[in-house]
Design goal:
It is a single chain. The protein has helices at residues 6-15, 134-137, 222-232, 236-239; strands at residues 2-3, 25-32, 59-67, 72-81, 88-100, 103-111, 144-156, 159-176, 179-197, 200-213, 244-256, 261-262. The chain is globular and about 60 Å long. Mean pLDDT is 83; it is low at 1-21. By secondary structure, it is mainly beta. 11% of the residues lie in helices and 49% in strands. It is built from 4 helices and 12 strands; from the N terminus they run βαβββββαββββααββ. It folds into 2 domains: 1-99, no CATH class; 101-263, no CATH class. A hairpin with a 6-residue loop joins strand 4 and strand 5 (88-100).
Length: 263
């Protein structure tokens, strides 16, 4: 779901109108301005080279939440990234229904909760780095799905926690090192369990999807060429993803006493 570059500016103008200050409408904005440079011109990393760049890590976001009634709300989050020529896209666009104070059901475009920071990856002040480690969070182009999730919060003695179950699908063009590929993930599903005890926290999760890509062994893109070599060696069909099931497990531990943070 991609908008013209003017869409975010229009949303900002809307937020300044009298109607935007209704008690049922909440508007929040955030911006990360990041500069990066490498000490050598022999390599490039995460889009950076030996010249200072502000584009790769800079973004601006606007989130709007409309309370429809006591149990239902609508949320829209618009993100404009420097790494994507500041095109504006909707990373969140969902309806939330809360049948109880501890249960949320969301339907629409959702964040894929693969890692600890996935739900608030763009909000820089929510973590202790300039940006989260790219080795883990580099697949931000796959960070949203269209689907539904259910979150149940609970307390057991001194332990507070939540269980999240989600399912959905993803289909879009992605850019890998300057080349465009179409990727589709069907039957995306996962389970996330988070718990907190005092200053300690833990998170474990399981995720799966059936992945397909438009890799062509006769094409000229790098993955196409690899598929062509695989075909020559008789394993081309195994190399090209076609409804191939992928599984992913995640676990993390945290400690935060207000002055020391370990994650």
């Amino acid at each position: 779901m991609v908008f013209r570059k003017s869409a975010l500016a229009a949303a900002v103008l809307f937020s300044c109108s009298p109607a935007a200050f209704s008690s049922d409408l909440q508007i929040n904005g955030f911006m990360n301005i990041t500069a990066g440079v490498l000490s050598t011109d022999e390599i490039s990393l995460d889009g950076y080279d030996d010249e200072v760049s502000f584009d790769n890590g800079t973004l601006v976001g606007l989130q709007m939440t409309q309370q429809v009634n006591d149990s239902t709300s609508a949320t829209l989050q618009l993100i404009s990234r420097g790494s994507q020529d500041y095109e504006t896209e909707a990373s969140w666009a969902y309806i939330t229904y809360s049948p109880s104070a501890d249960t949320d059901i969301r339907v629409g475009r959702l964040r894929t909760p693969m890692f600890y920071y996935s739900d608030f990856l763009e909000v820089g002040y929510a973590y202790n780095w300039v940006r989260p480690p790219s080795l883990v969070y580099r697949m931000d182009m796959l960070s949203s799905i269209s689907g539904v999730d259910i979150t149940q919060r609970f307390s057991a003695g001194s332990v507070d926690g939540s269980v999240q179950l989600y399912t959905g699908r993803f289909a879009d063009d992605i850019d890998l090192y300057g080349d465009t590929y179409n990727i589709e993930m069907r039957r995306v599903a996962g389970l996330v369990v988070s718990m907190n005890y005092g200053n300690f926290g833990a998170r474990v999760s399981y995720h799966q999807a059936a992945i397909s890509m438009d890799i062509d062994p006769a094409g000229s893109r790098p993955l196409d060429q690899l598929a062509g070599l695989a075909t020559l060696n008789g394993v081309g069909e195994d190399f090209v993803p076609d409804e191939d099931k992928s599984k992913f497990y995640q676990a993390s531990l945290t400690y935060d006493n207000g002055s020391v943070v370990v994650k």
